[in-house]
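Protein in question passed on here:
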Amino acid sequence: MLSPIALVQQLIACPSVTPRDEACQTILCQHLKRLGFAIEHLPFEEVNNFWARRGKEGPLFVFVGHTDVVPPGPLDKWDSPPFKPTIRNGQLYGRGSADMKASLAAMLVACERFINQHPHHTSSIAWLITSDEEGPSINGTAKVAALLKKRNEKIDYCLVGEPSCEKKLGDTLKIGRRGSLSARLFIQGKQGHIAYPQLAENPIHRFNNSLTELLNTHWDDSVLADFQATSLQLSNIHAGTGAGNVIPDNLEVQFNFRYSPATSAEKLKNTVVAILKKHNLNYKIDWQHGGLPFLSAPGQLRSACLSVIKKITGLSSTVSTTGGTSDARFIAPLGAEIVEFGPCNRTIHQINECVSISDIEQLALIYEEILKKMILPVGAGLFYLRIFSALTKIKFGQKKAAFSGCLTVNFSHL
C-alpha cells in the first residue's frame, strides 16, 4: 500500500518548475496503470499532460491537478533546500508541498484504497493532470478539456485538489472563482528636459486623472452573495530613462480585474476605453483574458464533500469563490459539477512552503470517502440487505441458500 507521506516526498524531490514536469507524471502514471487506469499522454509543445481513466460507464468522476510549481526564489532564504523534502515540527517543507503535491499524493492513495476495496465499481474515475497551471495555462488543462469536449467525453463531477483551506483542513470548500482580465496600457507623451515642461508632454501627469477615475469606478451591475465585488489592481507602472532630469516619452501600466458574474469582460474593456478617451490620452491597450467567472450549482458532489469533511475533521466548511484563478475554469464550460478542496494555503508560493503531516493523512481519507459516496451505487447496499432479509423469512430450503449466496457475492462488490 502507498504511503501518502512518502509519495509527497517523492514528488517534492522532482524540481518541476513550470512548465517542467521532471518525472512527476511518470511516478503518478506508473501507479495509476497498476490500478487499472488507461493512460493517455497528451503533450502540447513544452507541456506534459495526461488523461487517465478507469471504467467506461457514467457518471464520470475526475480528479484535476497539476505537477508544476512556482520557482523557489532565493535559495539562501530557505531553511532547507526547496526540493529536498524535510520534516520539522509536524510539517513537511518543500516547494509544491501544499500547491499541490500533497493533494496529488492523497488522490492516488485514495484511489488505491478505494479500488482495492471495490475493484468492480460501475461508474468511472479519471485523472486530468498538467504541468502548465502555474504558468500561462495555455497548453495544459485548457487543451485537454477542449479535446475531451471534441470527442464527447462528458465529465459529470470534478474535484480540483488546489489548496483551498485557510486556517485548518476542512474550513473552506471552493465552488467557483471570479474571472480574470489583464491589460497592458501604453500612454504616449513627448520627451523633454524637466526644466522646460512646456516643451514636453509628461505621460505620467496625463494619466493621473484617468487613474483616479479608474480607481473610483464601481464595476458591478449588482451585488452577488456568492462573490466578492469586482476589483481593479495595478501591478506595474514604468516610465522614464533612469535620468532624473528627463520627462519620459511614454508610460506603461499593467493592471488586472478580478471580476464577478455581475459584470463581463467586454463591459470592463468598454468602460476603461471610455475613461481613457474622456481624458484625451494618446494610448494603446492590449488585453489578455485569463478566464471566465463560474459558480458551480449545489449538487451531489458538494453535498458529499461537506458531509465527508464534517465527518472526518469535525468542521462545517465555508463554501467560497475567493482566491485566484484555477484550472477549474477550463472544466466549468463542460457542464460538470465542480469543487476545489485541498490543504491549507497559508504558505503557498512562499519561502519555506509547507504542509501538515496530519493534514496529508486526513486529506487521503477525505478523498477516499468522497469516492465512495460518488462512485458506489446509491442505496445499493441497503437494497441487497433488504432482499436478503426478506428471503431469510421465506422457507425455500435449498433455493433459499442459492439466492442467499448470489446476493452475498453481489454485496461483496460494493
User: Anything to note?
Assistant: The longest helix spans residues 97-117.
